[in-house]
Design brief:
alpha+beta, six-stranded antiparallel beta sheet, 34% helix
């Protein structure tokens, strides 16, 4: 037992391990909430009684990855785009989903600069994916889900079979 107490850091995940855990948690939350892996590419809207429409766009679908954008219907006064907004990538083979960036129209290098230190990139990814975890949890609590998701334009969401 003293060997375990002497090596407490071995029991706790490092930041990278924690980030990978967030990716896995985000995948399962997103899969349960909207099942985007079953949707055809296109735009979808989830409406519930609170009046805050959630927009999900399946941008690209490949055998093992999905490119998605998740956003509210709010329009940011400074950018003119929907906010909050998250660009997501789901890896269906590895069962992980990562937030690539959370700023409309901005990539990671535009937020952090051209050559940020690895620690800065890791911290930024932890913040983005922690935000995504909390946001997906909030959306589920508000009643958003597969049952409230419709294809933009009023049709029911198309499902690949």
């Amino acid at each position: 037992m003293s060997a375990i107490l002497d090596n407490r850091k071995a029991l706790l995940p490092g930041r990278f391990g924690f980030l990978m855990g967030l990716y896995a948690e985000n995948y399962h939350r997103l899969a349960r909430l909207f099942a985007p892996h079953e949707l055809a590419p296109g735009q979808y809207v989830s409406r519930v009684d609170d009046g805050l429409d959630v927009h999900l766009q399946v941008q690209e679908k490949h055998p093992y990855t999905l490119e998605l954008e998740l956003t509210y219907g709010f329009i940011d006064q400074h950018t003119g785009q929907r906010s909050p907004s998250a660009q997501l990538r789901m890896y269906t083979d590895a069962h992980v989903a990562e937030a690539l960036h959370c700023h409309p129209g901005r990539h990671l290098w535009q937020v952090l600069g051209p050559f940020p230190p690895a620690h800065t990139v890791l911290q930024h990814r932890l913040r983005m994916n922690g935000f995504l975890t909390r946001w997906l949890e909030y959306l589920a609590e508000q009643g958003h889900g597969k049952g409230t998701l419709e294809q933009a334009g009023g049709d029911m969401a198309a499902i690949d079979r």
